[in-house]
């Protein structure tokens, strides 16, 4: 596991979701109850950007169709999504947010677009 710096702590305030990058990886970074979380930035339902959504029901909500996902596990907690999103280990120290990436795993991206080109 390799931890990459993605943001300054002050860039992700309580209850906010924002998009950040590290190399070819794209994340939705959020903060709930003081803790920073990192997930894929794409909803598993129709690839909408989760960074355009907001935090709901202790999860990250998609602005397109109302799906929501658990911030810890990525499991859907509100339909219409039925597939989980990828979550990443997230650490915060010295005023910076770091996300754990497994270099052997390719970056998570829009699933439906990948299926159309396969």
Automatic annotation (TrEMBL):
Region (Disordered): 97-118
Pfam families: Rieske
Chain ranges passing through the membrane: none
Keywords: 2Fe-2S, Iron, Iron-sulfur, Metal-binding
Ranges where the Rieske domain occurs: 3-99
PROSITE patterns: RIESKE
Highest taxon listed in the record's lineage: Bacteria
Protein name, as recorded: Non-heme iron oxygenase ferredoxin subunit
């Amino acid at each position: 596991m390799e931890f990459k710096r993605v943001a300054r702590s002050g860039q992700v305030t309580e209850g906010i979701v924002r998009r950040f990058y590290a190399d070819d990886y794209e994340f939705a970074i959020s903060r709930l109850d003081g803790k920073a979380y990192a997930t894929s930035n794409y909803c598993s339902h129709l690839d909408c950007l989760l960074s355009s959504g907001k935090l709901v029901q202790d999860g990250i909500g998609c602005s397109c169709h109302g799906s929501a996902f658990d911030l810890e596990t990525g499991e859907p907690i509100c339909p219409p999504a039925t597939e989980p999103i990828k979550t990443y280990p997230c650490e915060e120290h010295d005023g910076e947010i770091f996300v754990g990436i497994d270099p052997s795993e390719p970056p998570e991206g829009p699933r439906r677009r990948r299926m159309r080109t396969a």
